[in-house]
Amino acid sequence: MSxxxxxxxxxxxxxxxRFLLSLSLLAVxxxxxxxxxxxxxxxxxxxxxxxxxxxxxxxxxxPNTGGxxxxxxxxxxxxxxxxxxxxQGTTDVKSTGTFDETxxxxxxxSVEAFEPTILDALKGIAAKEPAFAALPIGGIPALIxxxxxxxxxxxxxxxxxxxxxxxxxLKSEATTIANTIDAAFAAAIAVYS
Length: 193
Known about the structure:
Blueprint: H1 11-31, H2 38-61, H3 69-94, H4 101-127, H5 129-133, H6 140-165, H7 171-192
Protein name: Hydrophobic surface binding protein
Signal peptide: 1-31
Pfam families: HsbA
């Protein structure tokens, strides 16, 4: 008695194999870094600027006495949204590559435009520390401190990505802006530490 082995390929098995191959190729395509454009970076900066303005407005609106937990938590929510946008901006800058002179100037001007707003927000949050500490529910100053530390880290990462992508002649000015903003973060963090 002899046993003969026959090779049989079942149609369902072939279809399943093709399906797995298609999924694998799709996964590789999705995992590959996507090249971003300067227009996307400019859109990120516009979003960051708008969110910084919202944060600054909510900090300025928070009263020196008698503030509410709801208003304090709105500031925390603003900070969390800004953190997300900064991180996306950093990713987009890194995947865009080096800016040419025109784009570099446009981006630098956009960042310079909202620099006073972020400085005002940081000065305001520092000045209002007693008002946050006086809220009937504790923990708000610690929450603000955590937000400040995270925003400082995220802002520095975004700034370093922009500096790395900037044309050589704009790097010094971009570094000065980054250092000014970082110093303001350090001052606000010191108040809450």
